[in-house]
């Protein structure tokens, strides 16, 4: 693991690191905030999965999580959203496919399968690296994310029972199989079998019996992507009549940006701290 930067913040450390990823067959970059409590004891780990077009840096620079994470003693891990590099397949015309748009799935289709193994990367390879490199309590993990990253967080919570103790999302893509935002990438990464797609769709996973105790979702009503790509009411319908608890908060005037995310970041960190 290479240290790209380390800066003291709120008594802890905000770092950016890179490593050769076996899963993604390329060098991957990620950010980690380590709170001051880690000098005394292992700390819970909160995974933040970013949205389309993001790297590790968007939330690190605009998410405003450090003050509260330091207060609550949370390690915050912010991975990249896809494999990167000149040899990694990309799309020059579609921002919802290729680099910056990994959708947190393991691609099976050529030419993407060689590098686009984001599910394995986030759920296996990177946790092992974090466990070995930081004072992390891996028995106390939570996961959250934004938009495409909200989809990643919710599907991982549902697919890996017992792994995460808490899950929340900002403006998540709750039904990628029916969202024009995700369909193009799903076809390129996963092929055309709808049964395969449904394994990466929070609504479809719940319909198939997957369970997670409770979700927090924040959504802005002025989000330009609300009707087209997000539709949180589909998840509300999916969990109705199940034992899954959903707190869905609609916020007047908020859009899809990091101004929205940073406004509610403290709430999400407290939500996780109470559950991990
Ligand atoms: N390029 C797009 C807008 C892309 C965008 O809004 N990306 C969001 C995530 S969208 C869902 O996954 C984001 O987080 N952007 C980074 C940021 O720092 O705001 C367009 O032109 O419409």
TrEMBL record:
- UniProt entry tagged with the keyword Hydrolase: yes
Keyword Hydrolase listed: yes
- Protein's recorded name: S-formylglutathione hydrolase
Cross-referenced InterPro entries: AB_hydrolase_fold, Esterase-like, S-formylglutathione_hydrol
What positions constitute the catalytic site?
Answer: 147, 223, 256
Bilayer-crossing regions:
none
The free-text function statement in the UniProt record for this protein reads: Serine hydrolase involved in the detoxification of formaldehyde.
Provide this UniProt record's keywords sorted from A to Z: Hydrolase, Serine esterase
NCBIfam families per UniProt: fghA_ester_D
Coiled-coil zones: none
GO cellular component terms, A-Z: cytosol
What's its catalytic activity? S-formylglutathione + H2O = formate + glutathione + H(+)
Enzyme Commission code = 3.1.2.12
Tell me which family the UniProt entry assigns to this protein: Belongs to the esterase D family.
- List this protein's GO terms for biological process: formaldehyde catabolic process
Q: Which GO terms describe its molecular function?
A: carboxylic ester hydrolase activity; S-formylglutathione hydrolase activity
């Amino acid at each position: 693991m290479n240290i790209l930067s380390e800066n003291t913040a709120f008594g802890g450390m905000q770092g950016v690191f890179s490593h050769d990823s076996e899963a993604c067959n390329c060098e991957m970059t990620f950010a980690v905030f380590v709170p001051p409590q880690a000098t005394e004891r292992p700390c819970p780990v909160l995974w933040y999965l970013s949205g389309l077009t993001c790297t590790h840096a968007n939330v690190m620079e605009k998410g405003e999580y450090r003050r509260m994470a330091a207060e609550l003693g949370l390690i915050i891990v912010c991975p990249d959203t896809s494999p990167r590099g000149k040899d990694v397949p990309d799309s020059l015309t579609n921002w919802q496919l290729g680099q910056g748009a990994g959708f947190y799935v393991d691609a099976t289709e050529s030419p993407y399968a060689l590098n686009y193994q984001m599910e394995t990367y986030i759920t296996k390879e990177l946790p092992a690296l974090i466990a070995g490199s930081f004072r992390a309590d891996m028995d106390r993990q939570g996961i959250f994310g934004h938009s495409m990253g909200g989809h990643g967080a919710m599907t991982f919570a549902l697919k890996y029972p017992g792994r995460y103790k808490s899950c929340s999302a900002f403006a998540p893509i709750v039904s990628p199989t029916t969202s024009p935002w995700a369909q193009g990438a799903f076809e390129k990464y996963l092929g055309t079998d709808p049964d395969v797609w449904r394994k990466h769709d929070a609504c479809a996973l719940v319909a198939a019996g997957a369970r997670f105790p409770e979700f927090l979702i924040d959504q802005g009503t002025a989000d330009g992507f609300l009707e087209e790509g997000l539709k949180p009411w589909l998840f509300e319908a999916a969990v109705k009549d199940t034992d899954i608890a959903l707190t869905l908060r609609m916020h007047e005037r908020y859009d899809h940006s990091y101004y929205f995310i940073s406004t509610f970041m403290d709430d999400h960190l407290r939500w996780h701290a109470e559950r991990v």
